[in-house]
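User: Fold this, then the next.

Assistant: Folding the first:
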Amino acid sequence: MKSDDRPAIATVPADTLGQPRRVVAGALRWSRTLAAFRHRNYRLFFSGQIISLVGTWIQTVAEGWLVYQLTNSAFLLGLIRFLNTIPVTFLSIFGGALADRRSKRSILIATQITSMLLALTLAALVYWKRSEEHTSELQSPDHLVCRLLLEKK
């Protein structure tokens, strides 16, 4: 790295602990902005997260579509969306404590595998609903409510 490529370091007023802070001053360069992509593990994490998030978005739309198709009820559609937020709201504190004590990698793997299994469960329920011998099993949104309560990390 050339000496002129290095950003200037500025000292700013002390934080609440009385420690002076050093921050980068000046313009950011694109080469430094995307520097994390030089590391193979970050590229794998980033691409895996993109795939996971796109899958989550598709699943969210499909769940809403399925609930509305099965019930024709805007209320139940809203209820399902609301129920999606409950586990995140109440389990975030415990998830943070767990993340402080366990390996982040193993937590990521476990949550991704759990999400995949729950998505496959929903796919199987929808598939069986379409087959004639299991039509009565998914007529009520109870299956969806239970699965969605278990789903969120």
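Now the next one, as you asked:
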Amino acid sequence: MPITIASAQTDIEIINQAIMLCGRTSIVSVQTNDKFSTDAAAFYGSLVQSELSSNRWRFALKYADMGTLTTLTPEFEGWQFYWDLPGDLLMLHRVDPWVNYTVFGERVLTTTQEGLTAIYSQSVPVSKWPEAFKMYIIYALDRKSTRLNSSHT
């Protein structure tokens, strides 16, 4: 019987489609007693986060003014100011305007007081993903789940 892959709108629908590609039955919740489904659901979150963090997927890009400017007293290795990174940041791509900066923990250190904009990747709900990204995640999860399946049989 062929597997139909519909346009997923939720995390559980993405996980289910990958599980069905592995020949398993679908789940209604990630809170299940099936070790295979639990492992697939656990891997899903890290897979999505790492993929959104490792590539510049345009649908996940966000431009936001940097947070609070604070003066470093005393200076730290030549850096005079720091800015807080946005709370929804997964990966900082750059800051605008182009200035000398470094990321230190959850802060951006600079030598300028000029207003900065962060260009970064953020987490995006499944309903906002383009179809190509949904398919990529489904098949990446299927590949990983197939390996999990062979270790649980």
